[in-house]
UniProtKB/TrEMBL annotation:
<dbReference type="Pfam" id="PF07686">
    <property type="entry name" value="V-set"/>
</dbReference>
<protein>
    <recommendedName>
        <fullName>Immunoglobulin domain-containing protein</fullName>
    </recommendedName>
</protein>
<dbReference type="GO" id="GO:0016020">
    <property type="term" value="C:membrane"/>
</dbReference>
<dbReference type="InterPro" id="IPR040012">
    <property type="entry name" value="CD200R"/>
</dbReference>
<dbReference type="InterPro" id="IPR003599">
    <property type="entry name" value="Ig_sub"/>
</dbReference>
<dbReference type="Pfam" id="PF08205">
    <property type="entry name" value="C2-set_2"/>
</dbReference>
<keyword id="KW-1133">Transmembrane helix</keyword>
<dbReference type="InterPro" id="IPR013162">
    <property type="entry name" value="CD80_C2-set"/>
</dbReference>
<dbReference type="InterPro" id="IPR013106">
    <property type="entry name" value="Ig_V-set"/>
</dbReference>
<feature type="domain" description="Immunoglobulin">
    <location>
        <begin position="68"/>
        <end position="167"/>
    </location>
</feature>
<keyword id="KW-0325">Glycoprotein</keyword>
<keyword id="KW-0812">Transmembrane</keyword>
<dbReference type="GO" id="GO:0150077">
    <property type="term" value="P:regulation of neuroinflammatory response"/>
</dbReference>
<feature type="transmembrane region" description="Helical">
    <location>
        <begin position="263"/>
        <end position="284"/>
    </location>
</feature>
<keyword id="KW-0472">Membrane</keyword>
<keyword id="KW-0675">Receptor</keyword>
<dbReference type="InterPro" id="IPR036179">
    <property type="entry name" value="Ig-like_dom_sf"/>
</dbReference>
Length: 293
């Protein structure tokens, strides 16, 4: 009885093992497949990240050395605009002026090919294959605008921009106006000049805008101290390295006013004397006529 029971138990466990073995093998195969797929996905993700970083680095490299500079020049002077990179394959200057005009200059070193449509006043500083700098021979207000240089080489394309402003120094005059007050006038400056007075006092400043883009500043000073002898007008402008000082003597003006007052008083006294003389003659004739009658 015990022998039969043992055989029956062994048979049952054997049958269960035979039935479970394919399931175990199938699960093992599936697990191995999932593991390989996971490893492949991780590998692809790592390669994808490396590729993205590589593209990003290349993009940043192609945009290096980009800069912008505000540059000013006095009217009538020469202006040189430099491109920082002097070793290049292609150099291009694009000019966008405030008056709506535009032009370009370009040069390819590998083909020695030059193209330009700017005026003769705006040209290469020297031979472009040696130095891609731009020169404006005589800066005028019409030359104001954006000057953009692009340099292409094996590392990418580099950009550099200049915003050009032309300065016009004013013409200054200092005199007395019709009211007898000192008047300082800075004519046709760009930008507008700054006017101050020594000694500091009460004054009034007004601007006048012209059609050529320049401004005229007129400042009238009100003298409050009768004993003041001299006055100075100080004019500042970006086109000058330092302020200009213009002096005016109030003593001469006061002396002139005194002389004018004396002349007026003398004239009035003379007129009054003539009037009194005529009145005396008239009254004498009237009195004499009545006495005769």
């Amino acid at each position: 009885m015990d022998a039969k029971s043992g055989i029956s138990c062994f048979t049952k466990w054997g049958t269960m093992y035979v039935l479970l073995l394919p399931i175990i093998l199938a699960m093992a195969v599936m697990g191995s497949s999932l593991a390989r797929q996971t490893n492949q996905n991780n590998s692809m993700q790592r390669h994808g990240n490396i590729s993205i970083r590589s593209v990003t680095v290349n993009k940043v490299t192609s945009q290096l050395a980009e800069g912008k500079v505000n540059k000013s020049a006095v009217i009538g002077t020469a202006v040189v605009l430099d491109c920082p990179h002097h070793i290049y394959d292609l150099a291009v200057w694009n000019v966008y002026l405030h008056n709506g005009m535009w032009c370009h200059l370009s040069y390819r070193t590998d083909e020695w090919q030059e193209s330009k449509n700017c005026s003769e006043d705006t040209n290469w500083l020297s031979r472009p294959e040696h130095l891609p700098s731009l020169q404006i021979k005589s800066a005028q207000i019409s030359n104001e605008g954006l000057y953009r240089c692009s340099i292409s080489d094996t590392n990418g394309t580099f950009f550099f921009s200049y915003y050009l402003t032309v300065l016009v120094p004013p013409k200054v005059s200092l005199s007395y106006n019709v009211n007898g007050n000192p008047m300082c006038k800075a004519t046709a400056g760009k930008p507008a000049a700054q006017i101050s007075w020594i000694p500091a006092g009460d004054y009034k400043t007004k601007p006048e805008v012209s059609l050529k883009g320049t401004e005229t500043i007129i400042s009238e000073y009100y003298v409050t101290n009768a004993t003041q002898d001299d006055i100075a007008c100080i004019v500042s402008h970006p086109a000058w390295e330092k302020s200009h000082v213009f002096n005016l003597s109030l003593a001469m003006n006061n002396a002139g006013r005194t002389d004018l007052t004396r002349i007026l008083y003398s004239s009035l006294i003379c007129l009054l004397g003539i009037f009194m003389l005529l009145l005396f003659i008239y009254l004498w004739r009237v009195f004499r006529g009545r006495k005769t009658d």
